[in-house]
Amino acid sequence: MSLFFLMLGKTLPLYFNVLIGYLASKKLGVERESIASLLIYVIGPVVVFFATVSVKIDLALALFPLLLFILSSVLAFVVYYSCRKYWQDGTGNILAFTAGTGNTGFFGIPLAMVLLPSHLADIYVFAVLSSLLYESSTGFYVTAKGKLTTTDVLRKILRLPPLYAFLLALVFNLFGLEIPRVLFEYGSYFKGAYGILGMMILGMGLSGLKDGGHLDWKFINLSLVFKFILWPLLMFGLIALDHYILHYLNPEFYIVAIIFALVPMAGNTVTLAVLLKTKPEKASIAVFISTVIAILYIPLMLVLTGLLPFPVPLDFNKL
């Protein structure tokens, strides 16, 4: 019960940001398209850069987000080619995007900081780069496919700043190039803005429901199944494979992978849907429902995780 109240206290501020975004759109006329552009083209790249230069990269750590990126991309393409026939309006594209990712940043990073020791929280933040790269490449591709030609989609992907921010930060990290401390402090402001605006845009998407959005239960149910059933099953399977056969990952990585799999649907589902004009209202209501479900779902799954037949280094008695 104490874990439930801990989670509730940490997640409630996220819902206030959703409400603020809804009111800003409805009452103040704030345009969600402008916020989406800020997140993808300005704030996101800064967050990616400083997260990448902040961790010590070795082979195991480098391959960890790569494996998560491959898993995300495979899921996105499988869902896209399996489900696109059920909709003719771009809903299948959004479903494919959301199947490959989760709210690993806005929701997952605060969660990791609460539950994990600092060195594992840093590993989690680095793992989140796989989501940012997925959303800027494969995710963008499946979302835009059908609205744009393949050539146009690839051109837009190559113009997305997060990709270049990651490559630049990788150069700084691997060659040991130092960044002044004052710039790190400046970068921390962007992390806060990224989290706040990312949840606000969810509320802005909800404000459009009255103007033609509706509850598409097929889309919502499939999204929730992919996020809350398929992702955990796949992650637990990969962890078991490593523990019993491969012996590649440090067991401490297991809990990082589990938290990565348990977070609700990605807030950037709405961001990209707004930017590409692909059913942002449907995306908003599905993301909101998944975020509400996560209040109970995550504490329950974390408790059940303690019963797994392989070690998960998380002592719930210390929370």
UniProtKB/TrEMBL annotation:
Position of the signal peptide: none
**Subcellular localization(s) per the UniProt record:** Cell membrane
Q: Which GO terms describe its biological process?
A: transmembrane transport
Q: How does it sit in the membrane?
A: Multi-pass membrane protein
The record's Gene Ontology cellular component field reads: plasma membrane
Keywords in alphabetical order, please: Cell membrane, Membrane, Transmembrane, Transmembrane helix, Transport
Task: Please name the Pfam families in this protein's record.
Answer: Mem_trans (PF03547)
Membrane-crossing segments per the record: 6-23, 35-53, 59-82, 94-117, 123-142, 163-183, 189-207, 219-241, 253-276, 283-310
- Entries under PANTHER family matching the protein: AUXIN EFFLUX CARRIER FAMILY PROTEIN, SLR1864 PROTEIN
Q: Which family does it belong to?
A: Belongs to the auxin efflux carrier (TC 2.A.69) family.
Q: What is this protein called?
A: AEC family transporter
